[in-house]
Amino acid sequence: MIKQLIMLILFSLCYMQGTFGGYAIFDYSNDSGKDGFDLKRAYLSYSTDISEDLFFKIRLDANRPLHNKLYVFVKNAYVDLKFDNGDKLSMGLIGTNSYGVQEKNWGYRFIEKSVIDKYGMTNTADYGISYSKNFGKIKSSIQLLNGEGYGSEETDNNQTIYLSFLYGEPELNKNDGMNFGIVVNHVPKDIEDNSLIGFFGGWSFNNLRFGLEHNQYKEKGISYIKKVSSLYTNYSINEKWAFVLRHDINKEKFGENLPENSGEHPSEFTIVGGVWNPTKGLYLSPNVYLQDNTNTYRITCMFKY
């Protein structure tokens, strides 16, 4: 299946005008006392404008789940239909609207995933449809998705509703400005409703960027609540170097009706380091990963192609 898809992309590159690219994440770390090199992730994508109104993209993803061998799978395969008034309809295997802006506020996906993604509070891609519309300075998106994520087919006949609202600049990793917004996920499953609500904001000016967010995820079936707050900042010292700092606080609790803080299992996580961009398409980050009184020293690399 994957070989045929790769051949299809290569065939498209030969006979269609489009864009071919992606990036890979490579690192060296002493994680769990085991020093070594590893390729964490690699993406290969192809996109093209089929017409003035229709855009197509397909992306392959290679990663190593649970430290096993690398697996290649389809992460995205969708079309965007653009309307004259600026609205957009997307359909296929699409990225969810829950984490993209926050990921750009943070700005360093290759060092660590965005908060919602890292703590497994949402699916990053799923099968379904999406509609995006702007109301003045407010950008909105509603999605109807299977709910199982890109790794599974529909199994329970219950779709998930994803909502997002954004005010301000959506790409603070590229432009100065500010933003704040809210994301909501709801999976209707009778008494086992699952839900996510997240608030976020960011600010960028004169080489300095801040971001913060708070997310709460609930599973009613097992009375499980996860609350994650995060604060992150980075400063571009010059064109080649930047300083990076991030701190997450994760609280989990079983038993929704228990007293406040009862049964919670808090954990904290911090990243501090630098980012070196010696040439276009190459980023190297010496960083320290601090969690549960354990320090992991890493050199994380991203090369874009």
CATH names the topology as Porin
SSE ordering:
HEEEEEEHHEEEEEEEEEEE
Q: Biggest sheet: strands side by side, in what order?
A: 2-3-4-5-6-7-8-9-10-11-12-13-14-15-16-17
CATH architecture grouping = Beta Barrel
Q: How would you explain this protein's 3D organization?
A:
- The protein starts with a helix and ends with a strand.
- It has helices at 2-15, 100-106, 115-118; strands spanning 19-21, 23-29, 36-49, 54-63, 71-82, 88-95, 125-135, 138-145, 160-168, 177-187, 194-205, 208-219, 224-236, 241-254, 267-279, 282-291, 294-304.
- It has a single domain (2-304), classed as Porin (Beta Barrel), CATH 2.40.160.
- The model has no long low-confidence stretch (mean pLDDT 88).
- It has three helices and 17 strands.
- A hairpin with an 8-residue loop joins strand 9 (160-168) and strand 10.
- The radius of gyration is 20 Å and the shape is globular.
- The protein is mainly beta.
